[in-house]
Amino acid sequence: QVQVVESGGGLVQAGGSLRVSCAASGRTFRNVAMGWFRQGPGKEREVVAAIGWSGTRTYYADSVKGRFTISRDNAKSTVYLQMNNLKPEDTAVYYCALRDVGSSIFYYYTRRDEYDYWGQGTQVTVSS
């Protein structure tokens, strides 16, 4: 059984930083793409950032470009999201997702329906 576990959320003041992490376990993943999504109060779940297995290609939503950085450590089956200059509108539950990609090691994915496994989410709250 696959487990996807996020950690590192919390409460921070506007302008501050947080790093959230996501670890996958439960089976051997050969090649997986990973992504971060978020769902704010009363909003749809939206993609924040995504990264291919190789780590060389990344995607960022316009709202977080220049402030957030996605990275990964394949040896640890872990993906990170470094969030700087946080704004109150970044307040949301942040979800990690992953999918097998086979030989497509450079591709990232941005749609919810493209991912197979999801974590339970971690709350990030930014106070003004």
What is the averaged pLDDT score? 94
Structural class: mainly beta
Number of strands: 11
Low-confidence stretches: none
Compute the separation of the termini in Å: 40 Å
Strand content: over 45%
> What letter string, H or E per element, gives the SSE order?
EEEEEEEEEEE
Described by the principal axes of the CA atoms, the overall outline is: globular
Would you write up a description of this structure?
It is a single chain. With 128 residues, the protein is mostly beta strands. Helix content is 0%, strand content 49%. It is built from no helices and 11 strands. The strands form 2 sheets. Strands 2, 4, 5, 6, 9, 10 and 11 form a 7-stranded mixed β-sheet that branches. A 4-stranded antiparallel β-sheet has the order 1-3-8-7, with no helix packed on it. The mean pLDDT is 94.
